[in-house]
Write a structure and sequence with these properties.
Blueprint: H1 5-28, E1 35-38, H2 46-51, E2 59-62, E3 65-68, E4 77-84, E5 93-99, E6 106-108, E7 114-117, E8 128-137, E9 148-155, E10 169-174, E11 182-185, E12 203-208, E13 213-215, E14 221-224, E15 236-244, E16 254-264, E17 277-283, E18 291-296, E19 308-312, H3 315-320, E20 321-325, E21 331-336, E22 347-356, E23 370-380, E24 387-389, E25 394-399, E26 407-410, E27 412-414, E28 423-427, E29 437-439, E30 445-448, E31 459-468, E32 475-485, E33 493-494, E34 499-503, E35 511-515, E36 517-518, E37 530-533, E38 543-547, E39 553-557, E40 569-577, E41 585-597, E42 603-605, H4 619-666, H5 680-684, H6 696-699, H7 706-713, H8 723-739, H9 746-753, H10 789-795
Parallel strand pairs: 3-9, 10-16, 17-23, 25-32, 34-41
Antiparallel strand pairs: 1-2, 2-4, 4-7, 5-8, 6-7, 8-9, 11-14, 12-15, 13-14, 15-16, 18-21, 19-22, 20-21, 22-23, 24-27, 26-30, 28-31, 29-30, 31-32, 33-36, 35-39, 37-40, 38-39, 40-41, 41-42
Helix pairs in contact: 8-9
Length: 805
């Protein structure tokens, strides 16, 4: 028969059927296990338990149940039989089951107790089923045995292939690793039962890539198979790993996965310069630090294995040039370390070496991890300014007493581009504003142009400029320091103070003062001074001069018994001479005061008429004085507080009186008979207002009495009076009242002047009854006396005799 895929499947099904039949045979023969369970109910009494020892127990009898998975037959698959030893085969017992799959997956013959599986089972989904068995009386349906639990196990067959659950896999290994180096581990899982047969026993093998890697059949550990893995040639490999169950035997199932292995880099390649020589050119006037150029060495490695550093190997190149590494591009940057000179050397060959920073000692046998190249730098000539000799500057010296025009020194500068080229010299006037020095523009000779004084300035720093005669743009500068040498032209002088003091009881030979000297000169051999008394003091019998020989001198007494009341001051002239040359001298006068001293020698007073009196106070006296001052301050503060308190009380009383007056004047009053509320004399003299102290008399014309004003306005044609002016009159009177305290209060005046509009009681005033059409005769008002003269003036304007009132 030709082998076809269909035939292969048929063979596998036949093999599975034979295995299942063999398992059933084992279950019914040698592999069965009889299990007896007591049918004792939980609710039996203790007496029945004791009696059970005297008779044979009844209970369940069955075998261990197994069922083969993936059964493909058309008939229900026999699983096993449950039986109780109380069944005598008369058919009066009914068997039933309950639990997982009872009645659906598993059915039971009620009469015989045979159990069959009606569905195809998969152990990978559920490996066992737990059920409970019951034996009942067929007639009464009472339980004959206690309900018992049993398990039906699903017997495994090889129906699941191994699977790589964590794939695809990615691993890594360093290049040039030794054979057998571990890379990574792969694991395949099989859903079949690992405790039964070989269905879950998995072995591994490499399908693709076995030339470079191997895999352990049992563990799945991948290892290197060669030692020459080179990342620079191939940086990754892809393997196909297969996992087969049944321990790799025929008929086993398999699964595969892809494993990507990345080759990591190691530092196995040295740096290499693409060229053995690089050429650059640079102007000789380039500043220090100017980049000359860049070179780079390549490295086949990657990452930090390509990090390198550069250095200059030759000594000459190291003096003129410096090399640094650009951390971003790994380039060597060559810069100028020292100024280049075309006239000295026109070409420089610099040896630059590249070295790996991270060298792996495992690969040291591969060779040196460094490389060298030559960088040739050509120097270009430029027109340079003159160069002074010496270049760092010149120090000259001249005597302080040198004459005008005397030669101080000479500076020299040369053109580096051409021999014997003419150079012109000058002094920077900003450094010699007083023009103390002159310079010859051709020879560079510096001469004196002004008188020197070392004591004023001991050094002079000037700047000399040199330019090419043919190109004045090429200019250079050099500093010249001129030291002024000292000449002894200042005499020595006594150092201050020029005064000394002695006690009246000074003893002969007592040292009373030490003399020192100041001299503005600074001789090269140092100072040496000589002291002596001036010729006019040679006959002095009171004091002597002692030369200490260290440029100081001491004054001593010659006698005792000084009396300040007889003579309290002595003048001692002292002659000081220096060592020259030439020797100069000066005379200084020392004033010596005679003073009164205490027994310890402390000076108390140097006045001839004053005596020292101790005026020191004891601490107790000082404290008493401070206490007295404090008491005086407290008394002053207390008096000021009392005065302020009394002033406050008087002000509050005045405020209360004013408030009482306001309240009293706010009362309406009792009419003309009430003479207590306010001064009636003021009302009686209503038109005799005093002059206002404010600005009212200054801001307008003098006010006239109301009757005269009204009569003036109503003369002639009998025109009605203008009451707006009357209101202005009232307003001015109010302002006068506010400004004068002697007139009636504002409230009383307002109440009298205006009583309001629309009053239910009507107005008591007759002012508003004035009308040209009124028939009432008011001439009787003139007979009421002077008090009603004003009112009569309003209502009886036809009486000419009152116009002047």
């Amino acid at each position: 028969i030709r082998p076809t895929p269909f035939n292969a499947i048929l063979v596998l099904e036949i093999v599975d059927l034979l295995v299942a039949l063999w398992l059933l045979h084992c279950c019914s023969c040698g592999w069965s296990e009889t299990t007896r369970t007591n049918g004792v109910a939980k609710d039996e009494t203790k007496e029945q338990e004791l009696m059970s020892h005297e008779r044979v127990k009844r209970g369940w009898v069955w075998n261990q149940f197994f069922v083969v998975e993936e059964y493909t037959g058309t008939e229900p698959l026999y699983v096993g039989k449950i039986h109780t030893d109380s069944d005598e085969g008369e058919g009066n017992i009914k068997y039933t089951i309950s639990g997982e799959g009872a009645g659906t997956i598993f059915i039971i013959d009620e009469l015989t107790g045979d159990i069959h599986a009606t569905e195809r089972l998969d152990r990978e989904e559920q490996s066992y089923y737990t059920l409970r068995a019951q034996a009942r009386d067929r007639l009464t349906n009472h339980l004959l045995e206690s309900e018992s639990e049993f398990v039906i196990k699903v017997q495994d067959i090889n129906d699941s292939e191994p699977k790589f659950l964590e794939g695809p896999y990615i691993g890594s290994v360093g290049e040039l690793s030794q054979i057998g180096t571990s890379v990574m581990k792969v694991t395949a899982s099989d859903a079949d039962d690992p405790t039964y047969g070989s269905s879950a026993r998995v072995v591994y093998s490499v399908l693709d890539g076995e030339r470079f890697f191997t895999v352990d059949r049992q563990t799945g550990l991948i290892r290197t198979a060669v030692a020459d893995l080179d990342r620079e040639k191939q940086d990754r490999y892809e393997l196909v790993v297969k996992a087969t169950d049944m321990a790799g035997q025929m008929g086993g199932l398999s699964g595969s996965t892809t494993v990507t292995i990345v080759i990591t880099d190691v530092n196995d390649n040295p740096p290499r310069f693409p060229q053995k020589m690089y050429q650059f050119s640079m102007s000789e006037g380039a500043a220090v630090g100017t980049p000359v150029g860049r070179v780079i060495a390549t490295d086949a490695d990657m990452g930090e294995n390509t990090d390198m550093s550069y250095l200059i190997k030759d000594e000459e190149g190291g003096e003129l040039f410096k090399v640094t590494t650009d951390s971003d591009t790994q380039e060597a940057i060559i810069t100028i370390k020292k100024a280049l000179d075309f006239e000295s050397k026109r070409t420089h060959n610099v040896v630059v070496e590249a070295v790996n920073k991270h060298v792996d000692p495992r690969f040291s046998e591969l060779g040196s991890f460094r490389d060298q190249t030559i960088v040739r730098v050509s120097v270009n000539d430029i027109d340079e300014p003159p160069v002074f000799h010496p270049a760092e500057g010149t120090i000259l010296e001249v005597q302080e007493d040198a004459r005008l025009g005397a030669l101080v020194g000479t500076v020299t500068a040369k053109d580096p581009d051409m021999e014997n080229a003419p150079v012109r010299y000058s002094i920077d006037q900003s450094t010699d504003q007083e023009q103390i020095f002159h310079i010859d523009p051709v020879s560079g000779a510096i001469t004196l142009g002004n008188i020197l004084d070392r004591e004023t300035a001991g050094w002079h720093n000037i700047t000399v400029m040199a330019v090419e005669a043919d190109n004045v743009s090429q200019i250079s500068h050099s500093s010249v320091s001129i030291r002024i040498l000292d000449v002894n032209d200042n005499p020595p002088e006594l150092a201050t103070p020029y005064e000394a003091s002695i006690c009246e009881d000074a003893k002969p030979g007592q040292l009373i003062h030490s003399i020192s000297v100041v001299d503005r000169d600074e001789p090269q051999l140092g100072h040496r001074y000589y002291f002596t008394l001036a010729p006019e003091a040679t006959n002095n019998r009171h004091f002597t001069l002692w030369d200490v020989k260290d440029n100081t001198a001491g004054i001593r007494t010659q006698r005792s018994g000084f009396n300040r009341h007889e003579q309290n001051v002595y003048l001692l002239p002292i002659l000081v001479v220096d060592s020259g040359p030439p020797a100069l001298s000066s005379t200084g006068t020392l004033t010596i005061h005679v003073c009164g001293c205490d027994p310890e020698g402390t000076i108390q007073s140097c006045n001839a008429t004053a005596y020292a009196i101790s005026t020191s106070l004891s601490p107790g006296a000082l404290i008493a004085l401070l206490v007295c001052m404090l008491i005086l301050i407290v008394l002053v503060l207390l008096i000021l507080t009392l005065k302020r308190h009394r002033k406050g009380q008087s002000m509050s009383e005045d405020e209360e009186d004013m408030r009482d007056n306001v309240i009293k004047y706010n009362d309406e009053g009792g009419g003309e008979q009430d003479t207590q509320a306010y001064d009636m004399s003021t009302l009686r003299n209503l038109f005799d207002f005093p002059e206002t102290k404010g600005s009212l008399s200054e801001s307008g014309p003098e006010l006239r009495t109301l009757p005269q004003w009204i009569q003036g306005r109503m003369s002639g044609d009998g025109e009605a009076a203008d009451f707006s002016l009357f209101k202005g009159y009232i307003r001015k009177k109010v302002e006068q009242t506010d400004g004068d305290l002697s007139v009636p209060p504002y409230d009383s005046f307002q109440t009298y002047a205006f009583e309001g509009n629309s009053s239910p009681a009507l107005s008591l005033s007759s002012i508003h009854t004035l009308s040209t059409t009124s028939d009432q005769d008011f001439s009787y008002l003139s007979d009421w006396g002077p008090r009603f003269r004003q009112l009569a003036g309003y209502y009886a304007p036809g009486h000419p005799e009152e116009d002047g009132s």
